[in-house]
From TrEMBL:
This is dihydropyrimidinase. Residues 157-543 form the Amidohydrolase-related domain. It catalyses: 5,6-dihydrouracil + H2O = 3-(carbamoylamino)propanoate + H(+). The lineage of its organism: Eukaryota, Viridiplantae, Streptophyta, Embryophyta, Tracheophyta. Coiled coil: none annotated. Its EC number is 3.5.2.2. GO terms for molecular function: dihydropyrimidinase activity; metal ion binding. Homotetramer. It comes from the Eukaryota. It comes from Eucalyptus grandis (Flooded gum). The modification N6-carboxylysine is found at residue 256. Its cofactor is Zn(2+). Belongs to the metallo-dependent hydrolases superfamily. Hydantoinase/dihydropyrimidinase family. InterPro entries: Amidohydro-rel (IPR006680), Hydantoinase/dihydroPyrase (IPR011778), Metal-dep_hydrolase_composite (IPR011059), Metal_Hydrolase (IPR032466), Metallo-dep_Hydrolases_sf (IPR050378).
Amino acid sequence: MRTHTRARTVEMPSVPSSPNSRIIYPFFCHARKLHACLAPSLGESHAGRRPKPENRSMASRRAVNLSLTLLLLHLSILLSPSASEFGQFCDAGVGYGESACGVSGGSSKILIKGGTVVNAHHQEVADVYVEDGKIVAVKPNIKVGDDVTVLDATGKYVMPGGIDPHTHLAMDFMASQTLDDFFSGQAAALAGGTTMHIDFVIPVKGSLIAGIESYEKKASKSCMDYGFHMAITKWDDDVSREMEVMVNEKGINSFKFFMAYKGALMINDELLLQGLKKCKSLGALAMVHAENGDAVFEGQNRMIELGITGPEGHVLSRPAVLEGEATARAIRLAAFVNTPLYVVHVMSIDAMEEIAKARQSGQRVIGEPVVSGLVLDDSKIWDPDFTTAATYVMSPPIRAAGHDKALQAALSTGVLQLVGTDHCAFNSTQKALGIDDFRKIPNGVNGIEERMHLVWDTMVESGKISASDYVRITSTECARIFNIYPRKGAILVGSDADIIILNPNSSFEISAKTHHSRLDTNVFEGKKGKGKIEVTIAGGRIVWINGELKVAPGSGKYVSMPPFSYLFQGMDKADAAYLSSLRAPVKRQISTE
């Protein structure tokens, strides 16, 4: 592939010559490589020169001091990943965003020539012209001037950038905080072809206002577009009023209810009912983490009593039947209120079948599998090495072989509608908090960078779905559900210029050594496949090309999501039909005798 800008031509190889992608922003050092990262600043006397005999005592003390300093820095990276890093990014010359770092991201005019343009319901060979962050034209043989960057996409797919509906960046959880923040996590996403994500705001002591204020600060370093869901962890009049503020003033149109994590985030059925009713009145989508938290708590205690304290206890304590039960319960309560329901991270056949039955009956239920559940099984959780096994701990758990294939089939037939990641990054040091008790292992796996590649290889390359279906489940359906289509999720005139170029003949391999997350592990380690995203354009800027990222903190934008998406259409008529069917109240004669 070639890019042309004015008189300059730059070769774009279809497959990078090195297995290690180049990163042109040194935005952090991996904790496990911290000493190597700091060594250049230590000077030769510390980095490589052997001390004279008479100075060995002093050198020894310096070495101890240095080790302590490194340890403190190591801990600061682990425990404070959200600390401000703007200065070091921009001082290093991060190549994206004039306002953020004074570095130009290149021409705001881009022409993508000769690719197969794929939308959710149509594909055609055409050119795509981008100017000032918007798609201006989609048609064959577009002519442009010399001030336009030209990308040759012949033989490749040109598709909307991915939208990840389910992430947890800089989230405080289980005595720790997720390692990827709103810069490192988004940078990883862009390298993998995702150009927008929707993160979950966790209230502060139950307050939605305090929660959103906290997350607005966390997101100030964003390098791509993002939106917010809001979790509900308690119920009172203040929460009810604050939900109105979230919808009417903050651009949030979805609220999540945890049916698990007893004693922390879990809500009961009474609260869930109140929340469903409020969501319906606001035109906001109710979302559920569906596991029976009371039964999980009992299962955890049972495992501890049996002496099962390792990561396998996590899987054994929360079997698929508990996910199925909670999914069924949430679906029936949503039907009782007559409001749409979104079930996050569907991980089992049990939950999927409940969603299938509800949709077959006409109920508006959305099922979201995540990429880990689609392509992995639970075999690694039984690994004798704790670090390896703990890497795979998430909730609901990754299930036994067979559930993954069933979820793939449900996705290909429309029973499940879109794919998320539940990207929730805890490294091996954080996971070791539960080395003697699986209940203390922070729950979460990666996926924000790997989703687009793995879904293409698993679903399209295998022949299960078409390229248009791929666009639908990775981008368009998310945009429709959260009411931002066609601004997002489409390559149409007027849409945001969030675009990827995918080479179906190129290959990829996943490794913690080359990924862009701050994690020191990767649950997809060693997976290979076909279909490589060679270019990512976000907001009209080329941010990923030739294995290089060009991003800057502060260049991302918040996307406000209005209420009353297509899922609410006709709900009022259904309510009217229900009322007319009641044949009540019955008028009765009152005897005076």
